[in-house]
């Protein structure tokens, strides 16, 4: 049972435009969410996170939005740059002290078109 | 470079065999996490160690085991290998034992079981 879903395996966006990557989750115990970025032949790199007490977190060109009622989060990248081409994973963690473990989605491959 | 090293980078072996994957965490990090990424799948959490002790367990098969040594490096042992064990295995490290701490990933070990 996939508790964290990224329904778009791939996304192509023109350079300079906004990239929006989506993620849905089913477990209402999830209370901390993260986005990771992965280039080929490298491990994932942490990008941005959000706690369930917030609905938005911003870091430079990257903004994560959380809609708890819809169990949905999204990552906005604006403006998109060629170096943003990578696979993006969302991940979620439950509020379960002593048993914290990240659950990852299957990833969305973002391609920025120059 | 995340500061997390994994060896070997690639491993090709036959069914029924046993292999050991090694991970050295970032200097000062006490937690080590192991993940498996099969084809077109997200990262599946296997197991976490914190300062030498097992802290959290995911869907790790009984044929798999791990340990963290006093120098904090970790090894993941996979035995009685099956074709379905072919995957990328990532190690990550963080300072403490909470997922609120950023996890830094190594480049992964690609295991191919023939």
List keywords for this structure.
heterodimer; A: 114 residues; mainly beta; five-stranded antiparallel β-sheet; 11 strands; 0% helix; 55% strand; globular; B: 114 residues; seven-stranded mixed β-sheet; four-stranded antiparallel β-sheet
Number of helices of chain A: 0
Bin the strand percentage of chain B: over 45%
The 3D shape of chain B can be described as globular
Percent strand of chain A: over 45%
Span between termini of chain B = 31 Å
Mean pLDDT across residues of chain A: 93
Short recap of the structure:
The complex is a heterodimer of chains A (114) and B (114). By secondary structure, chain A is mainly beta.
What does it look like?
The complex is a heterodimer of chains A (114) and B (114). Chain A is mainly β and 114 residues long. Helices cover 0% and strands 55% of the residues of chain A. Chain A has no helices and 11 strands. Chain A has strands at residues 4-5, 10-14, 19-25, 30-38, 45-51, 56-59, 62-67, 72-77, 86-94, 103-104, 108-113. In chain A, strands 2, 4, 5, 9, 10 and 11 form a 6-stranded mixed sheet that branches. In chain A, strand 9 (86-94) and strand 10 (103-104) form a beta hairpin. Chain A is globular. The mean pLDDT of chain A is 93. Chain B is an all-beta fold. Helices cover 0% and strands 50% of the residues of chain B. Chain B is built from no helices and 11 strands. Chain B has strands spanning 5-7, 10-13, 19-24, 31-37, 44-50, 53-57, 64-68, 74-78, 87-94, 104-105, 109-113. In chain B, the strands form 2 sheets. In chain B, strands 2, 4, 5, 6, 9, 10 and 11 form a 7-stranded mixed sheet that branches. A 4-stranded antiparallel sheet of chain B has the order 1-3-8-7, with no helix packed on it. In chain B, strand 5 and strand 6 (53-57) form a beta hairpin. Chain B is globular. The termini of chain B are far apart. The relative contact order of chain B is 0.33. The mean pLDDT of chain B is 94. The chains are: A mainly beta (114), B mainly beta (114). At the A-B interface, strand 9 and strand 10 of A face strand 5 and strand 10 of B.
